[in-house]
Amino acid sequence: MIDRERARPLDVGLLGSRGIPARYGGYETLMEELATRLAERGHLVTVYCRAHYTRRGESPYRGVRLRVLPTLRTKHLDTPVHTFLSCLAALGARHDATLMVNAANAMFVPILRLGGMPTALHVDGIERRRAKWGRFGRAVYAVSERLAVRVASELISDAEAIREHYRKRYGAASRLILYGVDPRPPRDRRVLAELGLRAGGYFLYVSRFEPENNPHRVVEAYRDVGGDLPLVMVGTAPYADRFIADLRRRADRRILFPGAIYGEGYRELQEGALAYIQATEVGGTHPALVEAMGYGNCLLVNDVVENREAAGDAALYFEAARPATLTSAMERVRSEPDLVAHLSDVARKRAIERYSWDAVTDRYEALFRDLDRRSHVAVT
């Protein structure tokens, strides 16, 4: 009986992200890696995607059904409008279980629950601390945190620090499911050649260009680094044109801004970097940091609790608010090859031990089966 239950394919809906294929950030990467692996295991998986992000002709994608829906492309309405429409569409699908990402989407979880679909909510980092949000945005996230613990069938945290935040502040338990990495070697070095880079000959920064990710402080720190090793700053951000323009204006001539790069090009850059810089100060487990670990990069990491939890003893730590500390760490990378080799080895081993997409999928699959089982028990 148990074996038959485990073998039964589930119908799973994944909501709240921009969609797949992943071309933006951590939620989108999670959706792609999880959805495609669940589909390979025989489950019916639907990812709800935004029309300005996913082309309608891309469905199905690697065995995953893509439900492409419209939204309003403004800073404050893009996510809620699309999530609301996704929930209405999901009511007709009647999934066995659903996963919603982004704590701000907590207000829409009751729609799914009223439709009989158990829903896990991935709360990520403490979003109300992000500098990009004004007073209204921070208020929405503060209310959403409180609502999340009441409406979700289960809360998901991807870092112990986030799980502890919800436990201490709201007395709410959450299931810890970490991020994953799949460090497949790239097929070629085309992007490195186009950018004039050589493997092992550049610093790499990957993040959305937003204040709490500190790209401006990385630019400032690099200005005082000697030598000619370039700094490659990969990323962009919607609704941040003025911030990005100012960032580029202040940048050293050795800095390259190739924009957002995904897929094989991204793998090239991660594999070929001498060192990777993680300057974020808000959030849970940051995907690019885990991916840099998987590729065996020497890590330079902003010393906040979530980043230290992820990187452990595989990194040199700095304080983003004091750019000189990053300058010092970058100088050590330039002058201490043995240290770089040691940290690279520690990072690669840590990624193998802690961050596996197959293990992540195992945990989500178990979660979805738990949710489906509980919903049937409730009905009976």
How would you concisely characterize the structure shown here?
With 380 residues, this protein is of the alpha/beta class. Helix content is 46%, strand content 15%.
Structure description:
The structure is a single chain. With 380 residues, the chain is α/β, with parallel strands linked by helices. The protein is built from 15 helices and 13 strands. It has helices at residues 2-7, 26-40, 78-93, 109-114, 135-151, 160-170, 190-195, 215-222, 241-250, 263-272, 287-294, 305-311, 323-335, 337-354, 357-379; strands at residues 11-15, 44-50, 65-69, 97-101, 119-122, 154-157, 175-176, 203-206, 231-234, 255-259, 275-278, 298-302, 315-318. The strands form two sheets. A seven-stranded parallel β-sheet has the order 3-2-1-4-5-6-7, with helices on both faces. A six-stranded parallel β-sheet has the order 10-9-8-11-12-13, with helices on both faces. The radius of gyration is 21 Å and the shape is globular.
N/C terminus separation: 18 Å
- Mean pLDDT across the residues is 91
The low-confidence parts are none
Question: Helix amount, in percent?
Answer: 40-55%
Gyration radius (Cα, Å) is 21 Å
Shape descriptor reads globular
Strand order of the largest sheet: 3-2-1-4-5-6-7
Strand content: 15-25%
Class derived from helix and strand content: alpha/beta
Biggest beta-sheet profile: 7 strands, parallel
Q: Could you give the order of the helices and strands?
A: HEHEEHEHEHEHEHEHEHEHEHEHEHHH
**Beta strands, count:** 13
Q: How large is the count of helical segments? A: 15
Topology:
Elements: H1 2-7, E1 11-15, H2 26-40, E2 44-50, E3 65-69, H3 78-93, E4 97-101, H4 109-114, E5 119-122, H5 135-151, E6 154-157, H6 160-170, E7 175-176, H7 190-195, E8 203-206, H8 215-222, E9 231-234, H9 241-250, E10 255-259, H10 263-272, E11 275-278, H11 287-294, E12 298-302, H12 305-311, E13 315-318, H13 323-335, H14 337-354, H15 357-379
